[in-house]
C-alpha cells in the first residue's frame, strides 16, 4: 500500500509541477477575491451567504472546465509524449498505474473544490461579517431549512459528485482516444450541450429521458425539493449516475489494459 | 525463486515461438531465441523487420498473439511484475517528462521500484555524466543528454537485462562511441545482458558479442561476432597468395578452390589451412601470404537477406 502511494505521488508531481495547474488554481483564487470584493463595494444587500452561494453557482463551471482539461491530458499526454512506454515497463500492473492516475485526478478536483469553498467562506466572512441567519431559507431564500453553512457544504458535496462524473468521463475519453485535445473538446461539448439540452429534454414526456446522463449532473436542484420533474429523486439520480460510472470505469480499464502501446 | 545454479545456467531471456499477428498480417513469426548472460546481444534487421515489435512484446507493451517470453524464468504474460523487475529499457527514443527536471524524472521512475535510494540516483547521475545539468528541465536537454538520462533511468534499479531499441539513433559519433564503450563495460563488469537493436550493421559489429538477424518477422540467424573461441571452429574463406594460382587451384580442387587474381580462395578451418599450406609448399608452389577473409557482418547480412536494401 505504501508503495502504491508512491505512484499517486508521481501523478501528483506531474500535475503540480506544471505551470498551467498553478495558473488554474490562481484563477480560482483571483476570481473569488475579485467577485467577493466587488460585491462588497458595489452592493449593500448582500451577505456572506449570498455571495458564497453565488460564487458556487458560477465558478463551479470553471472548476469543471479545469478538471476536464487536466483529466483529458492524464492518459493522452503520456501517449502523445511517448512517456507511456517508460511508465508501463515497471513492476506494476497497468490497472494500478491507471488507478494512481485516476486518484490523482479526483484529488485535483477535490483541491479545487476545497480551495473555492475555504477561500470564499473565509473571505466573505471577513468582508461581510458573520450573518446569523438560522436557515438557508432565511439567508438565501431557497427552499431548504438547514443551517446556511451546512447548506453550502451539501451544495459543495453534490458539486463534487458531479465533478467525479466529469473526471471519470473525460478520463475515459482520454484513454480511448489518446488525444488530449479530442478528449477535452468532446467532454466539454457533451457536458455543456447536455446542460443546455437538459431543459428541453426534461419537458419531453418519454420515459428514456430519465436515464440520460446530463439530467443528473446538476444534483443541487435536490437541495430545494426532494422531487424534480419526472418525479425523479436524489436516490434515483445517484443510481443512474452509478450506472454510468460503472460503465465509464469498466471501459477505461478494459481499454487501457488491453491496448498495445505502439506509438 | 530459482537456485543460484539455475540462474547461472539458464539463459536470462527465452523467447519461445513469439508470434504477433495484427489483423491478417503476421508481423513476428515464431521467434525463438535465448539470450546468454553478460553479453551484448545485437538484434539486427532492416527497418520494418519487426525489431521494435519484438522488443515491445518483451517488455509487455504489446501482447503476444502466441508464444511466451521468459525473463529470469518469469513469464511476461502471466508473471509480468516479477519478469519486468529485472529489466531496464529504452524503447525507441528516450522520451521523458519535458516539463520536469532530469532529477525529477529519475525520482519519478525510482518511486516505481522499491529500494532505490537518493544515493543510488546520485550515483547513476554521476555515472552518465549529467551531474551539472540534472536540475535543469529536460526540455533544455540535447538529444545526447536525453539519451544519457534514458540510460540512467534504465540502469537505476540494477536490472540484469538492459534492452535498448536503436540506442544510437540521433547520437553523434562521439556519443555513439561513448555509449558503445559503456554498454560493453556494463556487460563485462556488471554482468548485465544488453539487448540492443539496430539497423546499423557497422555499429553492431563494434558493439556486440553476438547478433541475431531478423527479417520480415523471422529469425534468420544468430552469429557470434567476437568469438572468444579459438579460431577454426568455424571455417572461413582463406586467400592463399601464390606464384602459380592456376596450379594451386587445381591442387586444391578437393577444397573447392577458386581462382582470385593472384591467389586461390578456399574455405577452410584452422587445421586445414596448415595442411593446405604444407601441400602447396610440397608441390613447389611459393606461398607469399595467407589471409583469412573475415567477412564483415554487412556482407553476411546482405548475403543472408538476399541483398535486400538495408538502412
From TrEMBL, chain A:
Q: Does the keyword Membrane apply?
A: yes
Task: Indicate the transmembrane segments per the record.
Answer: 21-38, 58-81, 102-129, 149-177, 189-208, 228-256
Keyword 4Fe-4S part of the UniProt annotation: no
- This protein's UniProt keywords: Membrane, Transmembrane, Transmembrane helix
- Any idea what this protein is called? ABC-2 type transport system permease protein
The root-end lineage is: Bacteria, Bacillati, Bacillota, Bacilli, Bacillales
From TrEMBL, chain B:
Keyword Transport in annotation: yes
Q: Could you list this entry's UniProt keywords, alphabetically sorted.
A: ATP-binding, Nucleotide-binding, Transport
- The residues covered by the ABC transporter domain are 13-241
- A GO molecular-function term, please? ATP hydrolysis activity
Highest taxon of the lineage: Bacteria
Q: Does the keyword Nucleotide-binding apply?
A: yes
Which InterPro entries does the annotation name?
A: AAA+_ATPase, ABC_transporter-like_ATP-bd, ABC_transporter-like_CS, P-loop_NTPase
PROSITE patterns from the UniProt entry: ABC_TRANSPORTER_1, ABC_TRANSPORTER_2
Family of this protein: Belongs to the ABC transporter superfamily.
PANTHER family in UniProt: ABC TRANSPORTER, ATP-BINDING PROTEIN
Protein name, please?
A: ABC-2 type transport system ATP-binding protein
> What species was this sequence derived from?
Paenibacillus taihuensis
Amino acid at each position: 500500500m505504501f508503495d502504491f502511494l508512491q505512484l499517486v505521488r508521481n501523478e501528483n508531481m506531474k500535475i503540480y509541477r506544471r505551470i498551467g495547474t498553478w495558473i488554474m488554481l490562481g484563477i480560482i483564487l483571483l476570481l473569488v477575491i475579485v467577485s467577493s470584493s466587488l460585491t462588497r463595494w458595489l452592493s449593500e444587500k448582500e451577505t456572506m451567504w449570498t455571495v458564497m452561494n453565488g460564487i458556487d453557482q458560477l465558478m463551479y463551471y470553471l472548476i469543471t472546465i479545469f478538471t476536464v482539461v487536466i483529466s483529458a491530458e492524464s492518459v493522452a499526454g503520456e501517449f502523445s509524449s511517448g512517456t507511456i512506454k517508460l511508465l508501463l515497463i515497471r513492476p506494476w500492473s497497468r490497472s494500478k498505474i491507471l488507478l494512481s492516475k485516476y486518484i490523482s485526478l479526483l484529488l485535483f478536483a477535490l483541491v479545487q473544490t476545497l480551495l473555492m469553498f475555504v477561500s470564499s467562506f473565509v473571505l466573505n466572512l471577513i468582508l461581510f461579517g458573520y450573518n446569523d441567519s438560522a436557515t438557508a431559507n432565511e439567508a438565501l431564500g431557497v427552499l431548504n431549512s438547514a443551517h446556511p453553512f451546512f447548506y453550502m457544504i451539501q451544495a459543495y458535496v453534490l458539486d463534487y459528485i458531479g465533478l467525479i462524473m466529469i473526471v471519470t468521463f473525460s478520463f475515459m475519453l482520454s484513454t480511448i482516444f489518446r488525444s488530449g485535445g479530442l478528449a477535452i473538446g468532446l467532454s466539454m461539448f457533451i457536458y455543456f450541450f447536455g446542460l443546455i439540452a437538459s431543459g428541453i429534454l426534461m419537458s419531453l414526456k418519454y420515459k428514456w429521458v430519465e436515464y440520460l446522463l446530463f439530467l443528473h449532473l446538476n444534483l443541487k436542484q435536490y437541495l430545494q425539493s426532494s422531487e424534480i420533474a419526472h418525479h425523479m429523486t436524489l436516490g434515483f439520480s445517484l443510481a443512474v449516475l452509478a450506472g454510468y460510472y460503472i460503465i465509464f470505469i469498466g471501459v477505461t480499464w478494459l481499454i487501457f489494459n488491453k491496448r498495445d502501446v505502439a506509438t | 525463486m530459482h537456485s543460484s545454479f539455475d540462474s547461472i545456467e539458464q539463459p536470462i531471456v527465452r523467447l519461445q515461438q513469439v508470434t504477433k499477428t495484427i489483423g491478417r498480417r503476421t508481423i513476428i513469426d515464431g521467434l525463438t531465441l535465448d539470450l546468454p548472460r553478460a553479453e551484448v546481444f545485437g538484434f539486427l534487421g532492416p527497418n520494418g523487420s519487426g525489431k521494435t515489435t519484438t522488443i515491445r512484446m518483451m517488455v509487455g507493451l504489446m501482447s503476444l498473439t502466441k508464444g511466451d517470453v521468459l525473463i529470469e524464468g518469469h513469464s511476461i504474460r502471466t508473471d509480468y511484475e516479477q519478469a519486468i523487475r529485472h529489466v531496464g529499457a529504452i524503447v525507441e527514443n528516450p522520451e521523458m517528462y519535458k516539463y520536469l527536471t532530469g532529477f525529477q524524472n529519475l525520482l519519478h521512475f525510482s518511486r516505481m521500484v522499491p529500494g532505490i535510494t537518493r544515493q543510488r540516483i546520485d550515483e547513476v547521475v554521476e555515472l552518465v555524466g549529467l551531474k551539472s545539468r540534472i536540475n535543469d528541465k529536460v526540455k533544455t536537454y540535447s538529444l545526447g543528454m536525453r539519451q544519457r538520462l534514458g540510460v540512467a533511468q534504465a540502469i537505476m534499479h540494477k536490472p540484469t537485462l538492459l534492452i535498448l531499441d536503436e540506442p544510437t539513433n540521433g547520437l553523434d559519433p562521439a556519443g555513439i562511441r561513448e555509449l558503445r564503450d559503456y554498454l560493453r563495460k556494463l556487460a563485462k563488469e556488471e554482468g548485465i545482458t544488453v539487448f540492443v537493436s539496430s539497423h546499423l550493421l557497422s555499429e553492431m559489429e563494434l558493439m556486440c558479442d553476438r547478433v541475431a538477424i531478423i527479417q520480415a518477422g523471422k529469425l534468420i540467424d544468430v552469429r557470434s561476432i567476437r568469438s572468444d573461441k579459438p579460431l577454426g571452429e568455424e571455417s572461413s574463406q582463406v586467400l592463399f597468395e601464390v606464384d602459380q594460382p592456376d596450379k594451386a587451384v587445381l591442387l586444391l580442387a578437393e577444397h573447392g578452390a577458386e581462382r582470385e587474381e593472384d591467389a586461390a580462395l578456399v574455405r577452410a578451418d584452422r587445421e586445414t589451412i596448415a595442411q593446405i599450406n604444407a601441400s602447396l609448399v610440397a608441390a613447389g608452389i611459393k606461398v607469399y601470404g595467407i589471409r583469412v577473409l573475415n567477412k564483415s557482418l554487412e556482407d553476411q547480412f546482405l548475403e543472408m537477406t538476399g541483398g535486400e536494401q538495408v538502412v
